[in-house]
Amino acid sequence: MTDLFDPEPHESHDAGGGAAPLAERMRPHRLDDVLGHAELVGEGAMLRRAVARGALPSLLLFGPPGCGKTTLARVLAHEIDAEFREVSAVTSGVRDLRAAIDEAARHQRRGRKTVLFIDEIHRFNKAQQDAILPAVERGTVTLIGATTENPSFEVNAPLRSRCHVVRLTPMAAAEMRVLLDRALHDEERGLGARAVELPDDARDELIRRSNGDARIALNLLEMCANASSEGHAVIDASTVRALARENTVLYDKASGRHYDHASAFQKSLRGSDPDAALYWLAKMLVAGEDPRFAARRLLVTAAEDVGLADPQALVVATAAFHALEFLGMPEARIPLAEATIYVATAPKSASAIRAIDRAMAAVRDRGESFEVPPSLRMSGGATREYRDPHEAPGHFAPHDYLPDELRGTSFYVPGELGAEGEIARRVFGALGRGRHRERDPGRRPDAD
Description:
- By secondary structure, the chain is mainly alpha-helical.
- 47% of the residues lie in helices and 6% in strands.
- It is built from 19 helices and 5 strands.
- It has a 5-stranded parallel β-sheet with strand order 2-3-4-1-5, with helices on both faces.
- α5 (94-109) runs parallel beside α6 (126-138), α13 packs parallel to α15 and α16 (312-327) packs antiparallel against α17 (333-345).
């Protein structure tokens, strides 16, 4: 059986004569050796049928790091006997693209196909992406773009419409075990000649630390093997833990994962799951996220989702933000955790945000911009009696201070949970049931 990962045996060593990393040496170059993605390359799957016809479509491979985007591109090119030209969007520009396309045109005149692989294609700007389009349209190249970002947002619509978007998922634990076994037993490119042993507990720890990233798994395995004694090396779980670096946390502040994690954090807070909220907070902090970003998410959720059901939630979240500014990390993780637990376990009410949105819509969208009643102006007046709450029993004297045209309208409709239940009883009980009615955008206050 052929080795994993590398199309040509001589590429297993770099130009300086040193061995390439294990993850590079172990790349498959046959479709049958690719692990996972059965829905794409399995028997009867779309890409396998395309390879059998020798007519590969242009592709956008979308998935997290280490899921096999580069590997799959190389394998597909090898399977259809095409030239493989790789360009990195990080280091290349329009000149490099044109050179690659000119080379592909020469191959095309000789009857050879070219697969142009663009790694991190989302980093190309519009002009660079537009430069590829004519070559794709003419069939000069079969484009395979790899991206960790959603192509719908990061790839121009004209280019995206000429490609088939393929979503790749992280490697499953069972597939990871097969990958590690191959690396341990392959004597030519793997670690087979070194008789490295990986007990089950160490294997499970390594798989867990890799988070479905094949590159991390293989490189961590090699690091552990190199740290073990010469001869018959046995890798233990403690060695895996000691050598696992922070880059095993799948998080990138410059990518969509940044906002995916923020979304998971807020939805866990809103969904009253303190354990999940703490986990997403911890993952962001361990990955090096700015803790103020997480603190702002807490503030937003306390105001938007907890609201008046527990007004103290906003106070706690604000205090955590100030504590972060005063203390810094790592001590500030404690008030951030306290606020996270408080907000997650508090009752929820969105009445405040709905109320201000209704009021703003009345002014902005429906043009209900009425004058201040005379009794509420600086100069005072007698058109409507102004009641001083300090003179009223209990120092509480609710009244209707809306303009005459809006009297009886409710922008704020309280919930019944927590502190808001008391607000409803105190304020709306005093104002009467007529005011406790949601403002209908399509009706005037006197339409009843």
